[in-house]
């Protein structure tokens, strides 16, 4: 936890094994997590890196769709196999499978495109958002809470995350509405590689998104018996932005049913450009209220 950003960069620096039959093979480590499971955003970002390594540099990623199949173990390395599904005139498609001990933990398909001109519009930056400098850090909000997960949230993440509304870690204040916004940026400067920033944006996109579901039902993370796991994750990159500059992540949940919650997110640069759109569904099993 002493240098989480360096840890993230090391995790995203995959090793090219040199093996290639019908697929390209890469390997990578995992960041430490207090619960022993691989953070979903990490394996998403690593899968993006692996796929990007097989694509010409003039074709940046524009979308990916991934399914979380099994929980990953932070003590084991991860093997990434990339299938070069299609190389067209404008679009390139790759399938990445992430394996541990021979079984897949994530399956992802990503699409890459040459830079083309066309129609352009975007959902505008929301009104009434306070500047990130005016909001408390996670460390300030969690000060005095002696718990391993709280310590990771406060000091062990490679991103500075500041909630516009009151965080829902311990309690939920205000109205129970299924939407929120958070400011995020890396805790230090990142290398200039645009593809690294795109992969790191995938990593960042897995933070806090399902909180919009919890907030809508007045459930804090500290709810006894609460169990949450991501099922799938989709992302569309619209415009380039650096993750070492403040980004606003606007999140909302349109639906929850059957033990699942769906959430959508939009990631903006501070100057109002819509950088990416995100969708995620997760299992959310909350304890039944006592009669």
Short description:
With 291 residues, the chain is of the alpha+beta class.
Structural topology:
Elements (H helix, E strand, L loop, with lengths): L3 H9 L2 E6 L2 E6 L11 H13 L8 E8 L9 E10 L3 E10 L2 E11 L24 H4 L6 H9 L2 E5 L15 E8 L7 H12 L5 H6 L10 E11 L9 E11 L2 E10 L4 E12 L6
Antiparallel strand pairs: 1-2, 2-4, 3-6, 3-9, 4-5, 5-6, 7-8, 8-10, 9-12, 10-11, 11-12
Helix pairs in contact: 2-5
- Note poorly predicted spans: none
Order of helices and strands: HEEHEEEEHHEEHHEEEE
Supply the CATH architecture of the largest domain. Answer: Roll
Distance between the termini: 42 Å
User: How many individual β-strands?
Assistant: 12
Mean pLDDT: 94
Structural class by sheet pairing and helices:
alpha+beta
Range of strand content: 35-45%
Q: Using only CA atoms, what is the Rg?
A: 19 Å
Q: State the shape.
A: globular
Annotated CATH topology of the largest domain: Thiol Ester Dehydrase, Chain A
Total domain count: 2
Helical amount: 10-25%
How would you describe what is shown here?
By secondary structure, the chain is an alpha+beta fold. The chain has 6 helices and 12 strands. The chain has a 12-stranded antiparallel sheet with strand order 1-2-4-5-6-3-9-12-11-10-8-7. The model has no long low-confidence stretch (mean pLDDT 94).
What keywords describe this structure?
Thiol Ester Dehydrase, Chain A, twelve-stranded antiparallel beta sheet, alpha+beta, 37% strand, globular, 291 residues
């Amino acid at each position: 936890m002493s240098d989480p950003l360096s840890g993230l960069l090391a995790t995203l620096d995959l090793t090219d094994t040199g093996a290639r039959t019908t697929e390209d093979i890469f390997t990578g480590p995992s960041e430490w997590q207090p619960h022993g499971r691989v953070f979903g955003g990490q394996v998403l970002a690593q899968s993006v890196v692996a796929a990007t390594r097989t694509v010409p540099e003039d074709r940046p990623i524009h979308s990916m769709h991934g399914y979380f199949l099994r929980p990953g173990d932070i003590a084991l390395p991860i093997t990434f196999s990339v299938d070069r599904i299609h190389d067209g005139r404008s679009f390139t498609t790759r399938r990445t499978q992430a394996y541990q001990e021979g079984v897949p933990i994530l399956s992802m398909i990503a699409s890459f495109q040459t830079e083309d001109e066309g129609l352009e519009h975007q959902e505008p930056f929301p009104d009434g958002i306070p500047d990130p400098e005016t909001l408390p850090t996670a460390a300030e909000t969690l000060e005095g809470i002696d718990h391993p997960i709280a310590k990771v949230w406060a000091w062990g993440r490679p991103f500075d995350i500041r909630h516009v509304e009151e965080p829902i870690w311990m309690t939920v204040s205000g109205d129970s509405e299924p939407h929120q916004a958070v400011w995020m940026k890396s805790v230090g400067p990142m290398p200039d590689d645009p593809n690294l920033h795109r992969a790191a944006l995938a990593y960042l996109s897995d933070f806090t998104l399902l909180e919009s579901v919890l907030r809508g039902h007045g459930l804090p993370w500290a709810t006894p018996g609460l169990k949450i796991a991501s099922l799938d994750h989709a992302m569309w990159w619209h415009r380039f932005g650096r993750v070492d500059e403040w980004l606003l992540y606007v999140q909302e949940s349109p639906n929850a049913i059957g033990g699942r919650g769906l959430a959508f997110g939009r990631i903006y640069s501070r100057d109002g450009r819509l950088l990416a759109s995100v969708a995620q569904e997760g299992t959310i099993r909350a304890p039944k209220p006592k009669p």
